Amino acid sequence: MLKILITIILIFSLINCFGQVLLEDISGDQIANNVNSANLNANNLGLIKLNTGDQTFGFNYFISTVLHDPSNYFVHQFGIKAKPTDGYASVFSNSQFSPSVNISYGFTKVPLFLKTAWGGVNLSIDQNKYSFYKKDTSFDKQLSTVNHSGFNLIGNYNLLVASTIIINFRFGYSRKDNYQDLKSVEVKDVKSDFDASTSIERQVIVTKNAKDGKLLEYDSYPMSFSITKCTATDALSSANASKLKIGYTFYIKNLISNNLPKTDVGFIFIFTKQDKNGIRNPVFGFNIQAQDFFDNQRLNTGLLKRFQFGFTTNFTP
After folding, report:
1. Which residues pair with 317 in a beta bridge?
2. Nearest 5°: CA angle at 43, between 12 and 41?
3. 84-101 confidence digits (pLDDT tens)
4. Model confidence at 40: pLDDT above 70
5. Distance CA 138, CA 128 (A)
6. Which of 23, 18, 29, 9 has its CA nearest to residue 246?
């Protein structure tokens, strides 16, 4: 089953020869944290982001000390993003909105251990409102909502190689649940009125979306490895400065868990355009990802059916 995925969030420049990238996958998990940016020309930066994969709308705010000492500085990242837990289809078709909110903080040290390396830690908290349908209970209790919290603590280390290649490593702890893997159901409440004089029966139908199954919470240990080929920056007077360029990222994301272990593999292709400050920003992104590449969850659906494709864009306020 195909699902629109991915957001690619690219912000300020990494060094004089290429644009900086910050990547999220279809689930909203951060793939790379590249906040080493010698071309950053301000201590603060805001970024509005849209992710069609996990259907989130979010905002990130960055505070950097790079102007005080470009050779040794810190970056603080504050973020918030929200989405309808059961997707926008439920909002538009049923006017059903169950909010899901993620609040995050990230800290990055530049450089770290090596001149061309940087790293840090990301902490985030999820607050979700889940809807459930239970057939084997009394009628008035079949539909219910549950508030659920999640927690994520991820460390990252990043290395610049040969001026335009970024290698990223991430590993940490995450408290997860299986809500998105449960069976989705559509529940319809029907009320009927019958008019004896016209023999017309009128029905009022209220539809709700929910999950059918048992909610499981479990500990997991996410890790990822990615390689990014960045796009080169041209002189402002060059004819190539106004042209689109393509960069790409290859990544492997592994979730270590006794409950739902899996490995995702993907490519992200990034189209960038240079602005008047000489910084290349993304205008369009395309992603292809194989979910659960080794079929660790034993779905037996075939690899081709687990491929997902998506597009993205982003902007700064």
Report:
1. none
2. 50
3. 887 776 777 777 778 899
4. no
5. 25
6. 18
**CA–CA separation, 57 vs 16, rounded Å?**
30
pLDDT digits (tens, 9 = 90+) for 230-240: 887 778 778 77
Q: In this structure, what token pair is assigned to residue 283?
A: 């205008």
Residue 131's region, left for phi above 0, alpha for psi from -120 to 50, else beta, is beta
pTM confidence score: 0.80
Take residue 254 and report the two structure tokens written for it: 């592994």
Distance CA 169, CA 224 (A): 6
Q: At a CB cut-off of 8 Å and minimum separation 6, what does 140 contact?
A: none
Q: What are phi and psi of 192, to 5 degrees?
A: -120, 140
Q: Is it the case that residue 46 has pLDDT exceeding 70?
A: yes
Domains and CATH numbers, the chain: 7-174+217-315 (2.40.128)
Q: Which tens digit of pLDDT belongs to each residue from 108-162? A: 999 999 999 999 999 999 999 999 999 889 988 899 998 999 999 999 999 999 8
SS3 track for the chain? CCCCCCEEECCCCCECCECCCEEECCCCCEEEECCCCCCCCCCEEEEEEEECCCCEEEEEEEEECCCCCCCCEEEEEEEEEEEECCCHHHHHHHCCCCEEEEEEEEEEEECECECCEEEEEEEEEEEEEEEEECCCCCHHHCEEEEEEEEEEEEEEEEEEECCCEEEEEEEEEEEEECHHHCEEEEEEEEEEEEECCCCEEEEEEEEEEEEECCCCEEEEEEEEEEEEECCECCCCCCHHHHCCEEEEEEEEEEEECCCCCEEEEEEEEEEEEECCCCCEEEEEEEEEEECCCCCCCCCCCCHHHHEEEEEECEECC
CA dihedral sign of residues 90, 94, 98, 101: positive
List the single range of 128-137, 167-176, 275-284, 301-310 with lowest mean pLDDT: 275-284
